């Protein structure tokens, strides 16, 4: 089942992107050289193999500029496409299609890139119990869309923000005065619906944490043998998450240690843009 994305989560963002691109004078090039009555049929085409994500936010750029445009989606989110495949078709007045092209391609290329990379990683760990999850290392303003793209690619989401879970990291431990103090304070402050996770760097820290009541442990920058030992120590008493130093080449070995989650910041902050073209049909 494809992940859902409500228009309210992206309409303001797309409006802002269009305003940024159009500026105070509008699309000078298009208005200068394209007649107002010119018509066009434009095709979004994949230029490589991958997974589609973000087609509706991308197409909303055209709908905001001209609601009368006819838009047909050929490959909805979650579809696997090959080079040359048509993802969507936009028909109508040429001017708004040209003016919305870059905003639409920017959004679609980034989100398809995230979904495609996520799918590749999910395929690499097939048969293990691990789930690929993203982090809060997202592009400012694009978090909802980027996390959505991860779900479309078959992954899961970590926290959406600072307000939906407690994640006690190394600097929190220093500021709070240690693992026990930090966890005790968190349990006192957080409500009964709030999950608590603690980051540990060593098995000694993990042993201390196991004596406390937490929901998950983030096993930071541990090699596979250490991760395997950590999973054995936890013995199902909390969710185990591996993070740090994860690459496509190492992810299978990490997943085979038995961890529940593998989190990757680069999945959203450094993913390669997916190559998509918007081509006008001749004639």
Mean pLDDT: 95
Query: DSSP helix count?
Result: 11
The termini sit apart by 39 Å
Instruction: Report the principal-axis shape.
Output: elongated
Helix content: 40-55%
Helix-strand pattern: HHEEHEEEHEHEHHEHEHEHEHE
User: How many β strands by DSSP?
Assistant: 12
Number of domains: 2
Q: In short, what is this structure?
A:
The chain is of the alpha/beta class. It has helices spanning 11-22, 28-33, 55-65, 94-124, 143-152, 170-176, 179-189, 203-209, 224-234, 251-255, 266-269; strands at residues 39-46, 50-51, 70-73, 80-81, 86-93, 131-133, 166-168, 196-200, 216-220, 239-243, 261-263, 276-280.
What would your notes on this structure say?
- The chain has 283 residues and is α/β, with parallel strands linked by helices.
- It folds into two domains: 7-112 and 272-280, Quinolinate phosphoribosyl transferase, N-terminal domain (Aldehyde Oxidoreductase, domain 3, Alpha-Beta Complex), CATH 3.90.1170.20; 123-269, TIM Barrel (Alpha-Beta Barrel).
- 41% of the residues lie in helices and 19% in strands.
- The protein contains eleven helices and twelve strands.
- The strands form three sheets. It has a six-stranded parallel β-sheet with strand order 6-11-10-9-8-7.
- β9, α9 and β10 form a beta-alpha-beta unit.
- α1 crosses α3 (55-65), α1 (11-22) crosses α4 and α3 runs antiparallel to α4 (94-124).
- The longest helix is centred in the middle third of the chain and has 31 residues, at 94-124.
- The protein is elongated and about 75 Å long.
- The two termini are 39 Å apart.
- The mean pLDDT is 95.
